[in-house]
Amino acid sequence: MSPADRPPAKTKKDQIVDMLRDGILSGELAPGDRLLQDQLAERFDVSSTPIREAIQQLVAEGVLSHSPYRGVQVAEVTLEDVHEIYLIRSVMEELATRVAVLNLRIADVKRLHECQATIRQSVEAGDIPTLRKLNYEFHWLIYHSAEMPHLAQIIRSLWLKSPWDTLHVLPTRPQEAITEHERILKAIYAGDAQLAGTRMREHIENGERTLTNFLIEHPS
12-74 — its CATH code? Predict the structure, then answer.
């Protein structure tokens, strides 16, 4: 790759945006958590300017929220948000899975099975942080294999707005997700791209159904 073809180096603001996104996806930052500029500047060892710019960008994206009384927080998701987010996710992630099936290598499929085994162990142990980390790896190994960066960017933005902290602690959902992952894996192993995509869409739809029922029964 020639110097002209290389992507420009990321600014401090862009690096902080990426780190905050990763913190939200990993569960380190949960919906409703407050973000203080001074603490973030100290944590990332930067001035307040790139912190302020990163926060402004994430507020504009809807990943963070800001109000005069609560300050800056990781955005919380309403029941209406859940339906729209999961509806779009089901379509986008079905597409990514269908395209990915023909690109997945033997080593990739092996790693998916390893993730699935560790997810099962995490559910049995009640280890939610490990469950969340391995669930992320399971899905994104598939989506990245589609080699469609614009599609991946759309999915990632929707994941940032999905209430994983709630979904993964619902009593029945982790075990249900294990069963649904197995169906996805069987379709991938068979090389059936259409079925794998369908199984992924069903997986997303089932998650929305379980989450919606919980939010209706436990209004905040």
Answer: 1.10.10.10
Residue 70: CA atoms inside 13 Å, Cβ hemisphere, count?
13
Query: In which element (H, E) is residue 189 found?
Result: helix 173-189
Where b means 16+ CB within 10 Å and e means fewer, 92-130 reads: bbbbbbbbbbeebeeebeeebbebbebbbebbeeeebee
Class of the CATH domain delimited by 79-217:
mainly alpha
Per-residue pLDDT of the chain (220 residues; tens, 9 = 90+): 445 455 567 889 989 998 998 888 777 887 888 999 999 999 999 999 999 999 999 999 888 889 888 899 988 877 788 899 999 999 999 999 999 999 999 999 999 999 999 999 999 998 988 998 899 999 999 999 999 999 999 999 999 888 776 777 778 899 999 999 999 999 999 999 999 999 999 999 999 999 888 878 766 5
- Surface-to-core class of residue 52, CB atoms within 10 Å of its CB (0-12 exposed, 13-18 middle, 19+ buried): middle
Number of Cα atoms under 13 Å in the Cβ half of residue 59 = 14
**Residue extents of the structural domains in the chain:** 12-74, 79-217
d(CA 105, CA 159): 25
Which stretches of the chain are assigned E, i.e. beta strand?
A: 34-35, 64-67, 71-74
* Burial (Cβ within 10 Å: 0-12, 13-18, ≥19) of residue 153: exposed
The strand pair at 34-35 and 64-67 is best described as unpaired
